[in-house]
């Protein structure tokens, strides 16, 4: 006689991280989603569109997220520093010969502005 013993239930859902945007589940790249095991096994895994969410993968995601946040913070601080520099400069004059009214002869180039700002900052 044959005896079959059940070891336990198979998980119906899997936690995955998407590697691409997937229209079928309205998921974007990098999202963590709970999908049916069959959908993962038959569609996502063979096409390389998702990986299982494991503790190692989760740790990698957190490290990457921290790196991105640090980069955003650095860029923001740099922009704020530039804003402070421009606030201290205030208004400046660009000497040009003028005609009737407020028309000037010649153009104001980006290099003209750079030179004036550098002279005001003593750099």
UniProtKB/TrEMBL annotation:
GO MF terms, alphabetically ordered: rRNA binding; structural constituent of ribosome
Keywords, alphabetical: Coiled coil, Ribonucleoprotein, Ribosomal protein, RNA-binding, rRNA-binding
GO cellular component: ribonucleoprotein complex; ribosome
Organism: Aegilops tauschii subsp. strangulata
Residue ranges constituting the Ribosomal protein L9 domain according to the UniProt record: 27-54
Protein name as annotated: Large ribosomal subunit protein bL9c
Entry-linked NCBIfam families: L9
GO BP of this protein: translation
Keyword rRNA-binding listed: yes
Family of this protein: Belongs to the bacterial ribosomal protein bL9 family.
Gene3D superfamilies named among the record's database cross-references: Ribosomal protein L9, C-terminal domain, Ribosomal protein L9, N-terminal domain
Domain of life: Eukaryota
Residue ranges that the Swiss-Prot or TrEMBL entry lists as coiled coil: 58-85
């Amino acid at each position: 006689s044959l005896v079959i013993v059940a070891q336990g239930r198979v998980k119906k859902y899997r936690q995955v991280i998407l590697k691409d945007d997937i229209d079928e589940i309205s998921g974007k790249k990098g999202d963590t989603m709970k999908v049916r095991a069959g959908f993962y096994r038959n569609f996502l895994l063979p096409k390389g569109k998702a990986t299982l969410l494991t503790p190692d993968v989760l740790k990698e995601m957190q490290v990457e997220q921290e790196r991105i946040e640090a980069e955003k913070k650095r860029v923001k601080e740099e922009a704020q520093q530039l804003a402070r520099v421009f606030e201290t400069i205030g208004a400046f004059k660009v000497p040009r010969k003028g005609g009737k009214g407020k028309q000037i002869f010649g153009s104001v180039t980006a290099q003209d502005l750079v030179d004036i700002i550098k002279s005001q900052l003593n750099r």
